[in-house]
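Residues and backbone
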Amino acid sequence: MSERVIPLVDQRIPTLSAPAAAFDPATRVAATGLLADRLGRPLRDLRISVTDRCNFRCSYCMPKEIFDKDYAYLPHSALLSFEEITRVARLFAAHGVRKIRLTGGEPLLRKNIEVLIEQLAALRTVDGEPLDLTLTTNGSLLARKARALKAAGLQRVTVSLDGLDDAVFRRMNDVDFPVADVLEGIQAAKEAGLGPIKINMVVKRGTNEHEILRMARHFRGSGMVLRFIEYMDVGATNGWCMDEVLPSAEVVKLIHAELPLVQLGHSAPGETAERWGYADANGKHDPAAGEIGVISSVTHAFCGDCNRARLSTEGRLYLCLFATQGHDLRSLIRGGASDADIESAIAHIWGARDDRYSEQRGAQPPDSGHGGQRRVEMSYIGG
């Protein structure tokens, strides 16, 4: 084994127990749908990882030299059951969550995930509306599952696709998976009505930036939203360095030179992507041509209105994609805690939140690091 192979059990970052104040009658907090953190940011978006496994080995997420055949994944008994996930999601909805995104790993590897989707689709927001239920996938299993996902109640999908050139795509997924199969999955999702579909391209300088324009041309006018994501310093296994980050401003400039763009406003509070629409001959947005998005957590932090929490596949709550610690909810779920207990725990955890890693990183010199603390892996809690 290589020196860099680190068993997952040792790779876990510290986990905190629920605050004792959550269970004290004098300080218990009930759900009102108006929960906010220390910076006034509401809780609106819950991202739930349903598996720590993936069938791709993308270098920026699950590099093969670490996530190899000897890698120790979580045993099934450690994962939250569908009923446990649904229970926790219902309590988050009571606090104001309106959107749930299923992630992984690769979420479509979780057996019978359609059953979970059906359970989540039955939940309601505090206003009595259905939750916005979405899923992020690498697209490898989408062609065979799209119709069943839609029938179960899934509304939309986001597909990760880092290039259209087959050689580039196979090199980036590092398992020799053909791009044609992902494109087939995207088409199947469109035909099933899982839209509007978003396509996420992680741009890594020196690897796939030459695919930017080709991707823009391909998806322009398709009804899908192509989003370019800066290569991020998530976790400790992807060998991140600033030299491999292509700033979103350069992506926009490159596309604008051939396909003129006009900036659009945010479509929802807390949205991560900056939106740019394709312009018509008069310099106005042409809705038929569509739009792109850029997600710039390295060069242009958007912590100020971040309203997202993340639940790991075995029930740890993380308050930031770059978190250095999580909060153990599974022990409450399996330890006999009441709904009121768990609601109060969520309220105390979110209420104490002041995370703003990207802003703090941006205020430091490029190579200064960030305190040397190990951060949670993206493959473990999703993007």
Observations:
- The chain is about 25% helix and 15% strand.
